[in-house]
């Protein structure tokens, strides 16, 4: 027996649909290949038109696939190129709808989680981190996610992780300090503690020392001490973003305030950060004890009250319980006691 869900997935797309998707992919690919700072305005406009003409789901999937193929490679990608790609996502996120950024972010984070657990030798993790960092720079995602990733890297604290922490702090450290100085301070304290305990294990001591110096430079807001730090390109592209976003605010109210854990468990517990996102799966709160208690509680109530509850359309156990409590209580104190139970 093959369940309908799996059956649908296994069924091949009909030719017409496949042809349409192929054509869409070619168009999006053509636009992405030509993407550069001077023509960002026209390309984002054409992408918006494609979003209006095609289904959002197809567009999100196509765009995410093409961007991932373009940016996530085994060699380190030029920072400029990644910034321009992410800026396009950011403009679409603000102009078309937050599900554009949300879909791309989820794909990037899941891929990063998968690769960080494997022993991949290439620079894919750095490229994915750069994508996440610039999604934060261009106000698609809130600093909460960046701190979650940093905490995860600090808790592992191997040489690969130290490299990634440095890479991330170099890209977004000063923005993090501006957004949440306290969380950054806690992170630095935790990293110092880890460095002290892991000192014997790690062969490359200079790398750890350099990371701690970078963190202290961040804490003291000393940009000169971070080699190669140049905020100019990001600032320039932020100005461009402000001109291209239709709404008056390119702002922070469209930022996705979502944690790493929520993104990784999205398939199980749903995507609360996307309005109207459908959700299917196991119930979010599976508390069997409370269910049995509710049923026992209802059992003591007369059939007349139950009939009344049915007429009033009290269609779940908890609603029926509350209705029965309100109808059968002697006074407000009695009702209060029963409701607490």
TrEMBL record:
Keywords: Coiled coil, Nucleus. Pfam families: MIF4G. GO terms for molecular function: RNA binding. Residues 25-222 form the MIF4G domain. One of its GO terms (biological process) is ribosomal small subunit biogenesis. It is found in: Nucleus, Nucleolus. Gene3D superfamilies: 1.25.40.180. Residues 181-208 form a coiled coil. The keyword Disulfide bond does not apply. SMART domains: MIF4G (SM00543). The keyword Transferase does not apply. It comes from the Eukaryota. Its main location: nucleus. GO terms for cellular component: nucleolus. Plays a role in targeting PPP1CA to the nucleolus. Belongs to the CWC22 family. May interact with EIF4A1, EIF4A2 and EIF4A3. Interacts with PPP1CA and PPP1CC. This is Nucleolar MIF4G domain-containing protein 1. It comes from Eolophus roseicapilla.
């Amino acid at each position: 027996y093959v369940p309908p869900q799996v059956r649908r997935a296994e069924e091949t797309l009909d030719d017409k649909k496949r042809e349409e998707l192929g054509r869409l992919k070619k168009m999006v690919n053509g636009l992405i290949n030509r993407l550069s700072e001077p023509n960002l305005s026209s390309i984002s406009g054409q992408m918006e038109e494609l979003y209006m003409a095609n289904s959002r789901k197809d567009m999100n999937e196509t765009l995410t696939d093409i961007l991932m193929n373009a940016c996530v490679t085994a060699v380190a990608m030029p920072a400029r190129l990644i910034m321009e790609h992410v800026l396009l996502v950011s403009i679409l996120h603000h102009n078309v709808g937050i599900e554009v950024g949300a879909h791309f972010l989820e794909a990037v984070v899941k891929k990063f989680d998968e690769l960080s657990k494997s022993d991949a030798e290439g620079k894919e993790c750095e490229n994915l981190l750069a994508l996440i960092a610039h999604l934060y720079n261009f106000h698609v995602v809130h600093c909460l996610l960046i701190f979650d990733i940093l905490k995860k890297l600090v808790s592992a604290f191997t040489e690969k992780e130290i490299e990634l922490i440095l890479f991330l702090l170099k890209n977004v450290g000063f923005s993090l300090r501006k957004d949440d100085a306290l969380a950054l301070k806690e992170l630095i304290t935790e990293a110092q503690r880890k460095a002290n305990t892991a000192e014997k294990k790690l062969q490359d001591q200079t790398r750890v020392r350099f990371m701690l110096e970078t963190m202290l430079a961040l804490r003291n807001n000393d940009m000169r001490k971070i080699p190669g730090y140049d905020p100019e390109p990001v600032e320039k592209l932020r100005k461009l973003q402000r001109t291209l976003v239709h709404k008056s605010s390119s702002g922070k109210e469209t930022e996705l305030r979502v944690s790493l854990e929520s993104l990784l468990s999205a398939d199980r517990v749903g995507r609360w950060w996307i309005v109207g996102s459908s959700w299917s799966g196991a119930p979010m709160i599976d508390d069997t004890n409370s269910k049995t208690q509710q049923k026992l509680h209802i059992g003591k109530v007369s059939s007349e009250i139950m009939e009344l509850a049915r007429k009033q359309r009290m269609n779940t156990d908890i609603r029926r319980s509350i209705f029965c409590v309100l109808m059968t209580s002697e006074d407000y104190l009695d009702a209060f006691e029963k409701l607490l139970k």
